[in-house]
Amino acid sequence: MIPASHQFRIHKFGQAAPWMDLANSEMWDGYGHLTDFLNDPQWISDFLEYWRFRVPSPGPGVLRDLRKLRKLLRHFAGKTSEGTAIQTRDLEALNSWLKVPVFRRLVEDQNGLQLTHRPVQIGWPAVLAQIADSLAEAVAHDSKDRLKICANPGCAWVFVDRTKGRVRRWCSDATCGNRDRVRRSRAAHKG
Ligand SMILES: [Zn+2]
User: Fold this and answer.
1) How far away, in angstroms, is 153 Cα from ligand 1 center?
2) What is the mean pLDDT of the chain?
3) Looking at residue 141, what is its pLDDT?
4) Ligand 1 centroid vs 6 CA: distance in angstroms?
5) 157: CA distance to ligand 1 center in Å?
6) Are 132 and 102 in contact (CB under 8 A)?
7) How many folded domains does the chain comprise?
8) Which domain range does residue 67 map to?
């Protein structure tokens, strides 16, 4: 378990799904300054521990794959956020990450019976597939219009909009939402 006081949790990782954490590992501070957590071995080890991916630290080839997959995840989030159509080539790109053999198993948990699928082999290809799979699950079930990118261009945090009317625009009302209100009221005063 990663305690809530840990940097990984303070930055609000480990909330929704592995794909969202990877997408947000490219983190802007709200003013356009970028931190790439894929350069941070501690973040990577927290990410792997949190989602119970049992693989060694990534080498340069795997890091390249993680960045490539991250770009695709953000591309998808951009589309669901804007409500634009996901195209065949987007699906093909995502499907290419899902191409690992899986075995299926029916299990029972607090939500009832669940059909699970796990990669047959372990290792990084399986982990990359599971990350991609978590996005595929999210867009396949009708929650895709809840997957959004913060409207503050200096932030661009990917989040799940759980409001009833799906009206949320900011990753956080207290930070990005508030900054927008301040900016608009300043502009109004000037005008
Ligand atoms: Zn934001």
Assistant:
1) 8
2) 92
3) 81
4) 21
5) 5
6) no
7) 1
8) 7-88+143-190
